[in-house]
Amino acid sequence: ELCSSPWSQAKIAYNHATCVEYINVLHRTVLTRASAQIHIHALKCVKLLQECRRKMGEGCDDRLEPGNSFLFGCLELSMCVLLRRFPEISPTDHPRTPVSSYASTGEPIEQIKELIKLCVDVIVGLVSMPT
């Protein structure tokens, strides 16, 4: 497990750039893969990163800077997953056609529910992290 040893927790939590890069890689994975199961695994990894940072007393950064912010990356990934499921929540005025919505792929509703729960958990986890 990612956070099973104090050594791995310290390496992950204290290296901000590594955490941000993990989030960016997970975001790219979510963008290029339509499977709800892959998205579930990506969100679980984000939760583990949050847990590591919390255990080591590291919080979220104050700034929302794309590519350099753990907070921004977590929000971006969560919103990407939610927009794939609910394209109608996009604030744009033009009609959105998702690359692949989960409904069209025949994903089990249990997976979709877990996916939405994980997205909410990630966002709530950001609020509860120290700054």
Report on this structure:
The protein is an all-alpha fold and 131 residues long. The protein is 65% helix and 0% strand. It has helices spanning 6-14, 16-32, 36-55, 70-85, 102-105, 109-127. It starts with 5 loop residues before the first helix and ends with a helix. The model has no long low-confidence stretch (mean pLDDT 82).
Secondary structure tally, helices:
6
Largest sheet: none
Secondary-structure-derived class = mainly alpha
What is the helical fraction, as a range of percent? 55-70%
Taken in chain order, the helices and strands follow as: HHHHHH
Evaluate the radius of gyration.
15 Å
**N/C terminus separation:** 25 Å
Mean pLDDT: 82
Shape: globular
E-strand count: 0
Task: Name a few traits of the molecule.
65% helix, mainly alpha, 131 residues
Quick rundown:
This protein is mainly alpha-helical and 131 residues long. It has helices at residues 6-14, 16-32, 36-55, 70-85, 102-105, 109-127. The mean pLDDT is 82.
Topology:
Elements: H1 6-14, H2 16-32, H3 36-55, H4 70-85, H5 102-105, H6 109-127
Helix pairs in contact: 1-3, 2-3, 2-4, 3-6, 4-6
